[in-house]
Write a structure and sequence with these properties.
single chain; 359 residues; alpha/beta; TIM Barrel; two-stranded parallel sheet; 17 helices; 12 strands; globular
């Protein structure tokens, strides 16, 4: 009651300032957070590295893509701040031994998109920056349904769609860009938590084209993955077999998703796979049970999509490491905004001032 009363008393301009990243940046509020929340390093999370799309992305699809120019800007930003560029193996050693001279940064890319090889790899190579690609094995196997792109295409191409949710047909108006965005957000939840591809196909059955066409167009091949794995700069990690939220699966299914992806990548590349990233990676998609599954499968580290920096105390939480997402919308065309995340200001705000998040 008292908290609600206080909230009503706060002027609207103050409320906006409390979450206004531009205000935070100009006021250099990040300097207040840095001593407590910058930690000893950061793990950056990317997905695709590709030219800007010809039409706006819907929902979180806008968060999945950065241009090659932004990737290079991010590297130069970290160079200017004198971060050590390290691999996940090196970050693991830093956490286990407690030995580090200055803050480090790790670059990671999720899923296994072809542009990681064609666009990102030359940039990392140019700057001698180590990086990790977490492979979802259904991507190079060409069996994945990239429902986030299927749904976007369906919405842009129609003014009305029908989907099947819990056995019932639901009709959505998507006649305007705003409504398309709303529908994408509404359907992202049930599609993210779908326990199998059959459920995804059922929900999106009004999509008449081949649902695997996107993965054939956008995903890495096993040959490209093997070439990447042969470079000492590159770490190949696992990202499950089918990119399903592990929490939506039975225990045995979750174990198979994790262990089978590790086994296939190791067989294909001839290299050990010791690092994992949870599909979707939020607290509803991965928690204590999933952390244990990954530990039992023999991984040294695993990363989530929880926002945060790395602290020495993460030596006891190696299977639920947070990351800093990097994408165009977040940075508002100003790479210096990244300091709000890497100095810990945005993470401490989002995490209610907790430094280490587990379950």
């Amino acid at each position: 009651m008292l908290v609600d009363q206080l909230r009503r008393m706060v002027p609207a301009s103050w409320k906006r300032a409390a979450t206004d990243h531009d205000f935070w940046f100009r006021a250099r509020v990040n300097l207040l957070a840095r001593p407590m929340y910058a930690g000893i390093g950061s793990i950056l999370a990317f997905h695709r590295v590709c030219p800007a799309p010809s039409r706006p992305r819907l929902g979180f699809n806008a968060d999945l893509e950065v241009t090659p120019e932004l990737l290079e800007e991010t590297i130069r930003f970290c160079q200017s701040k004198e971060y050590d560029f390290v691999s996940l193996d090196q970050a693991y050693e830093i956490l286990k031994t407690g030995k580090h001279a200055k803050r480090f940064v790790v670059f990671t890319l999720d899923d296994g998109y072809r542009d990681n090889y064609t666009n990102a790899y030359p940039i990392f190579k140019k700057h001698s920056v180590p990086f990790t690609v977490y492979i979802t094995t259904c991507f190079p196997d060409r069996t994945a349904i990239l429902w986030w792109y299927v749904l976007e295409e369906l919405l842009w191409d129609r003014e009305e769609i029908e989907v099947v949710l819990a056995g019932k047909t639901v009709r959505y108006d998507c006649s305007t860009p705003a409504k398309k965005r709303e529908v994408f957000e509404s359907l992202a939840g049930p599609l993210t938590t779908a326990p199998d591809y059959e459920t995804i196909k059922t929900i999106l059955q009004s999509y008449s084209d081949d649902m695997c066409a996107h993965v054939r167009e956008l995903a890495l091949t096993w040959d490209q993955i093997t070439q990447l794995a042969s470079d000492p700069l590159v770490t190949i990690g696992a990202h499950s077999k089918g990119h399903l939220a592990l929490s939506s699966l039975s225990l045995e299914e979750a174990k198979a998703e994790v262990a089978d992806s590790k086994k296939e990548i190791e067989q294909r590349t001839g290299k050990p796979v010791l690092h994992f990233a949870y599909p979707y990676g939020g607290k509803l998609a991965a928690s204590v049970r999933e952390f244990q599954v990954v530990k039992d499968s023999g991984f040294m580290t695993a990363t989530t999509t929880r926002t945060g920096n790395i602290f020495g105390s993460h030596r006891d939480s190696l299977l639920c490491l947070p990351r800093i997402p990097v994408h165009e919308k977040q940075l508002q065309k100003n790479i210096e905004y990244l300091t709000l995340w890497m100095d810990g200001l945005v993470p401490c705000h989002e995490n209610s001032f907790q430094r280490v998040m587990t379950a």
